[in-house]
């Protein structure tokens, strides 16, 4: 399976927040690079035309006013696009990108996010008429308000279904995801807003590594049933550096 990564994502100087913390991605990439079943691919930054499908000119300019932030946020969005293009070719792909994106709306952002990576990547595929629908599984601890604001209730014919599971027990959580996926139809691609802050040893104290494997496996199973296995996932939250690598790897073992 493919892993999107760029050395510049290690740069922690773009912000002072837990997502930008020094060392947050190092452990993930150590685990990835030790395993030959992962192939690392390197993205280019998203161009303005790509970003403007999801954001206003005003928001783009706000981010551009901070050159380092713009460099890294557009490179994260470019990583998302690369993952989407691979996913569309039925190559399961996980993007280890930073900054995350699911709290970025068209004209504003918060929660350590700047550009909405998922939306930028899906809207590029939609603009190229490759897809007309998508399913987003957002298993981050926090609801991806940016994903919802940009991708639902649209004026065009792009249809996106988003699940932010809310069950409070781990068994119920997996059940909820499974029963939602069972009822999906006419979906052209699956994408995960893959935050790991719901982990048992992270902020949310809920999901075990094997639960992440099951979430990945469900993404694989239902994308294979509905859309030729087209699927990709983008890193969002996850803040305990000592367990984040294991959780990412566990998800990928089910997802691949
Ligand atoms: Zn989160």
Residue windows where pLDDT falls under 50 for at least 5 positions: none
Give the % helix: 40-55%
- The share of residues in extended strands comes to 5-15%
- The tally of structural domains comes to 1
The strand order across the widest sheet is 2-1-3-7-6-4-5
CATH class descriptor: Alpha Beta
Distance between the termini: 6 Å
Shape: globular
Helix segment tally: 9
CATH architectural group:
3-Layer(aba) Sandwich
What is the CATH T-level topology?
Arginase, Chain A
Q: What about the largest sheet?
A: 7 strands, parallel
Ligands bound to this protein structure = zinc ion
Specify Rg, calculated over alpha carbons: 16 Å
Structural class: alpha/beta
* Average residue pLDDT: 98
Name of the CATH homologous superfamily: Histone deacetylase domain
């Amino acid at each position: 399976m493919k892993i999107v990564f760029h050395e510049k994502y290690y740069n922690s100087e773009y912000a002072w927040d837990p997502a930008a913390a020094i060392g947050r991605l190092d452990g993930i990439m150590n685990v990835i690079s030790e395993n030959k079943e992962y192939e690392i691919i390197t993205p280019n930054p998203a161009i303005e035309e790509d970003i403007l499908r999801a954001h206003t000119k005003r928001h783009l300019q706000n981010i551009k006013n901070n050159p380092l932030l713009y460099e890294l946020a557009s490179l994260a969005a470019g990583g998302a696009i690369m993952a989407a293009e691979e996913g569309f070719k039925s190559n399961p792909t996980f993007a280890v990108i930073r900054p995350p994106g699911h709290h970025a709306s068209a004209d504003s952002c918060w929660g350590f996010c700047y550009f909405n990576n998922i939306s930028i990547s899906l809207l590029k595929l939609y603009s190229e008429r490759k897809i007309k629908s998508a399913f987003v599984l957002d298993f981050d601890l926090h609801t991806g308000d940016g994903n919802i604001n940009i991708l639902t209730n649209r004026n065009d014919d792009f249809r996106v279904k988003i699940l932010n599971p809310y069950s409070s027990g781990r068994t119920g959580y997996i059940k909820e995801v499974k029963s939602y996926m069972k009822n999906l139809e006419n979906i052209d691609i699956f994408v995960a807003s893959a935050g790991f802050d719901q982990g048992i040893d992270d902020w949310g104290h809920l999901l075990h590594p094997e639960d992440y494997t099951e979430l990945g496996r469900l993404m694989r199973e239902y994308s294979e049933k509905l859309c030729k296995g087209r699927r990709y996932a983008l890193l969002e939250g996850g803040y305990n550096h000592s367990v984040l690598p294991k959780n990412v790897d566990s998800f990928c073992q089910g997802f691949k």
